[in-house]
Structures are given as C-alpha cells and as structure tokens.
Amino acid sequence: MAIRPILTVPDPVLKQVSKPVEGPVTDELRRLMDDMLETMYDAPGIGLAAVQIGVPLRIIVMDLAKKGEPPAPRYFVNPEILWASEEKKGWEEGCLSVPEIYDEIERPARIRVRYMDYDGTTIEEEAEGLYAVCLQHEMDHLEGTLFIDYLSRLKRDSAIRKVKKATRDAAL
Ligand code: GNR
Ligand code: NI
Questions:
Q1: Counting atoms of ligand 1 from 1, which one is nearest the CA of 138?
Q2: Count of domains observed in the chain
Q3: Closest Cα to atom 13, ligand 1: which residue?
Q4: CA-CA distance, 56 to 86, in Å (whole number)?
Q5: Is residue 1 part of a domain?
Q6: Among 108, 167, 163, which residue's Cα sits nearest to residue 139?
Q7: pTM (2 decimals)?
Q8: Ligand 2 is a single-atom ion; what residues have CB below 5 A from it?
Q9: Which residue range forms the structural domain that includes residue 149?
Q10: 125 CA → ligand 2 middle, Å
Q11: Residue 89 located in a structural domain
C-alpha cells in the first residue's frame, strides 16, 4: 500500500470527467482502492475520489466511522444516483483538494445509489445524512465538479487564491 499525493486546486486534472471502470473489479483496481484508502486516512479525510490522486476513473473510497469506532471502509466502483429527494439539506463541506476552506452546500437530503463494491458485487441502497452528503460530494468529483463550484465566483476565486498561496508557501 502507498500514500499518494492529493491534487489541489487549480490542478486541471480535477476538472476531468472520470471514465467508468470497464469489466470486473480486478486485483489491480483493488490495489488502487487500497492506496486511496491509505491516502484518505493519512490526510485525514472521510472520502476520496480516484481523480484526487490523478487517476480519472469512477472509483470512490469512504469511511464515516467516528473517533473510537472501528474502521468502516467503503468502496464504490461506477456509482450511479438512481433517485434524489426533492427535500434539500445544507451541510458544512470541506475537500482535501481545497484544503482549509469550508462552506455550507445544499444538496438532496436522501439519494438512492447503485455501485459495485470491493468484491465487484452490485449494491443498491439509500443514503441519508453525512453518507448522502459525502457520496454526492465524491460523485461530483467524478464529473470534475468541486464543492466550491456551487459558491459565488467571489468566494470560489478567493478559495483558489488561498489554496494556491498555501501550496506555494509550503513548497518554499
Ligand atoms: O474529508 C472530507 N470531509 C467532508 C466533509 C463534508 C462534506 C464532504 C467531505 S469529503 C472530504 C474529503 C474529500 O475531499 N473528498 O473528496
Ligand atoms: Ni473532495
């Protein structure tokens, strides 16, 4: 397993639309998911899309376990949203690709999703609460969309400028 660098804004790779995984979930893909999970835990974060480590494939990892609870890794290959509630809910979001920036984003409160898990088993289920928020945030990454894209241009530009400056300072 390996920790890989996480891309930050304004890296153009983050704007790419990720490609579906064709065929079954292979050992090679499982090794990628293992690296993603290790990278996410190290960050630390609660979710990570493959494109955030520069691999534009439709793969997500997540762990929503609270401090003190045992790890609960989740893996999503080719996830699809089958249904989203009319009801919306606001949540304070952050993103490892836009570090240290947080803002409230409104999204559907509940969604129904279909995906393949670590074994390649197809799963269909409903998500709500933080699970629904995180899944929608990660699935946006697969479309090249970041949570700051929902903010005003002023807030988005200021966020990108802050991250650029922090990244530049860290390199000196
Ligand atoms: O670690 C993360 N926390 C988080 C908090 C609220 C809403 C979404 C997230 S996802 C984020 C990790 C990340 O950037 N995933 O793409
Ligand atoms: Ni993110």
A1: 16
A2: 1
A3: 95
A4: 30
A5: no
A6: 108
A7: 0.98
A8: 95
A9: 12-171
A10: 22
A11: yes
Mean pLDDT of 98-114: 98
pLDDT value of position 56: 98
Q: Cβ < 6 Å from ligand 1: which residues? A: 45-49, 52, 93-97, 133-134, 137-138, 141
pLDDT recorded at residue 21:
98
Task: Could you list the beta-strand ranges (E) of the chain.
Answer: 47-49, 59-63, 73-84, 88-93, 103-108, 110-116, 122-128
CA distance 82 to 104: 24
Q: What local confidence, expressed as pLDDT, does residue 107 receive?
A: 98
Residue 4, domain member (yes or no) = no
Share of the chain above pLDDT 90, in %: 97
Q: Assess whether 124 carries a catalytic annotation.
A: no
CATH code of the domain covering residue 102: 3.90.45.10
CA torsion sign for 150, 153, 155, 158 is: positive
Q: Using the predicted structure, report yes or no on whether residue 30 has a pLDDT greater than 90.
A: yes
Ligand number, closest to the Cα atom of 42:
1
Per-residue pLDDT averaged across 80-95, rounded?
A: 98
Q: Is residue 5 part of a domain?
A: no
